[in-house]
Design a protein that fits this description.
Mean pLDDT: 90
CATH topology: Rossmann fold
Number of helices: 6
Number of domains: 1
Number of strands: 5
Largest sheet: 5 strands, parallel
Low-confidence stretches: none
Radius of gyration: 14 Å
Shape: globular
Order of helices and strands: EHHEHEHEHEH
CATH architecture: 3-Layer(aba) Sandwich
Structural class: alpha/beta
CATH class: Alpha Beta
Strand content: 15-25%
Strand order of the largest sheet: 3-2-1-4-5
Length: 130
Amino acid sequence: MTLAFELEALRALADPNAVFSDTRQWTEYVGVVSEKPTYVVTNFTRKHRVRQDFFSGPRGVEASLENVKQQFETTRHVLVSNNQTDADVAENVDWEFLPLEDAASAAEWELAENTETDDPFESSERDDWP
């Protein structure tokens, strides 16, 4: 199985590193996809010590999933996301969609109480800018 986490779903987990370690026991490949710029994904995964087999790069989620499917030939390709609009994206590229809450419940992953924003420049709600 190839398993992709959408970045916002990964941010909603209490311990992303532990989740990736757990998934490595029953998947062949695991990585992160996002519409965010590459540096946002990289900053998050480094901070949380998440070792990924693939990531979006400069592509969006749909293009990333297509690319990953071509590179990693496994019997299943599953996208975990907490955004229902990603269900349509997954369907468009012949991936299975799994809502984060369902995945977390089944695998006994703990959800974070508060999600974080890794990059202060990513937010448009800065009050210290002129």
